[in-house]
Design brief:
By secondary structure, the protein is α/β, with parallel strands linked by helices. It folds into two domains: about 190 residues, 3-Layer(bba) Sandwich (FAD/NAD(P)-binding domain); about 150 residues, FAD/NAD(P)-binding domain, CATH 3.50.50.60. The protein contains nine helices and 21 strands. The strands form six sheets. Strands 1, 2, 5, 6, 7, 8 and 19 form a seven-stranded mixed beta sheet that branches. The longest helix is centred in the C-terminal third of the chain and has 19 residues. It is globular and about 65 Å long. It starts with a strand and ends in a 7-residue tail after the last helix.
Length: about 400
């Protein structure tokens, strides 16, 4: 197994596999290596629907080997150090991999231990999270068995992948509680560090109406700082006043704090926030011209979603191949991202926007309206587009 590659990709998730597939299609003989320890590949956007009982957990999982493009060297190892001055990477097994060009696609790190009480409590005593394949089934178990009381849904004061997911599961839980006949004895509380339910005005107006219609107690500028699992208590801190309050809950769905992977934070590639620095248009590193980055690990001022990766990948591949040929990086990513906000069973708002938070929609309809057609897109079309389109480098 070679220790040097013309192009070395760090990470075999959505971003890494999509780039590898596109590179193989554009340059069939290009020497590519991809470093990824996991033998499973997950379509994580499905986890909201798994947590709401629409799909079983296994529907989101495939074998990683099935999506490594033919001819790409799969290095089943974990990156432990990135040494861009030496054009090298160290791995957990002790290997030293070198490269001519590097693509950083290591995703986002979930910091379960950042909230006292969360790591030890998750998956028990009504503490749920859709951000873990191991625990997502417990979300549905808890919602399905809920008998009333306070259902608390939280968002951390950090970047998160799929920023709309914390409210999606809340809307679905509201529907489930109504079907189960317990909504009239249930208080739903949404605690978010944001100033509003959504950043883009067009979609915010609709979602504010959804919150009002469902009778949800939305508390903004609130950050979860502690869980007391035995007492069923959550400690919230107001981000402006720093005052703390205690909310007693019967179930809580926690979106855990997230950050850049530690291996990036401690590398010369990191920006001030710890993400891999990258020009927001070309996706090229500002200091190391032989390094490109995309996806959740990249320090780009846009939401961290699979839809963003779908638009970033062709830009990165074009610019990488151009740079390899001594040509200018003339493809530009405009910050496009998408957030399919499920507002209940059979209803969805498709939010699409760019760096300036301006709508950038795909369909000739008003996508800010709740639609059954968008629900079908979410449940039937997008999973197929992911497995057979994106990961094959076709779309």
């Amino acid at each position: 197994m070679p220790d040097h590659h013309r192009v070395l990709i760090l990470g075999g998730g959505t971003a890494g596999i999509t780039v590898a597939a596109r590179l193989r299609r554009a340059a069939a003989r290009l020497d590519i290596g991809i470093v990824e320890p996991s033998e499973s590949h997950f379509y994580q956007p499905l986890w909201t629907l798994v947590g709401a009982g629409v799909f079983p957990p296994e529907a989101s999982r495939r074998q990683e080997a099935d999506f490594i493009p033919a001819g790409v060297d799969w290095i089943r190892d974990r990156v432990t150090e990135i040494l861009p001055d030496q054009k090298a990477v160290a791995t957990a097994s002790g290997r030293r991999l070198t490269y001519d060009w590097l693509v950083v696609a290591l995703g986002i790190q979930i910091d379960w231990t950042a909230i006292p009480g969360l790591a030890g409590g998750i998956g028990t005593r009504g503490i749920c999270s859709n951000y873990s394949f191991e625990h997502v089934a417990y979300t549905w178990e808890t919602i399905r068995g809920f008998k009333g009381g306070t259902a608390l849904f939280t968002v951390p004061n950090t970047a998160v992948k799929c920023g709309g997911a914390p409210q999606k599961i809340m809307y679905l839980a509201d529907d489930a509680f109504r079907r189960q006949g317990v909504r009239d004895r249930t208080q739903i509380v949404f605690a978010s560090p944001a100033k509003a339910i959504f950043a883009v005005e067009k979609y915010r107006k609709t979602l504010e109406q959804v919150v009002a219609r469902k009778g949800i107690d939305a508390r903004f500028r609130q950050n979860l700082v502690e869980l007391r699992p035995d007492a069923h208590e959550a400690v919230l801190e107001h981000l402006d006043t720093h005052e703390r309050s205690v909310v007693s809950y019967d179930m809580i769905h926690v979106t855990p704090p997230m950050s850049a992977p530690d291996v990036i934070k401690r590398s010369p590639l990191a920006n001030e926030q710890g993400w891999c620095a990258a020009d927001k248009f070309t996706l090229r590193h500002p200091t190391y011209p032989d390094v490109f980055a995309l996806g959740d690990a990249a320090g780009l001022p846009t939401s961290k979603t699979g839809a963003a990766i779908r638009k970033q990948a062709p830009v990165l591949v074009h610019n990488l191949l151009a740079a390899m040929g001594g040509k200018p990086c003339d493809a530009a990513y405009d910050g496009y991202t998408s957030c399919p906000v499920v507002t209940g069973y059979g209803r969805m708002v498709l939010a699409e926007f760019d760096y300036d938070n301006k709508p950038k929609e795909s369909f000739p309809i008003d996508q800010s309206k709740e639609r059954y057609s968008m629900w079908l897109l979410k449940t039937q079309v997008l999973p197929r587009l992911y497995w057979y389109g994106m990961l094959r480098g076709r779309v």
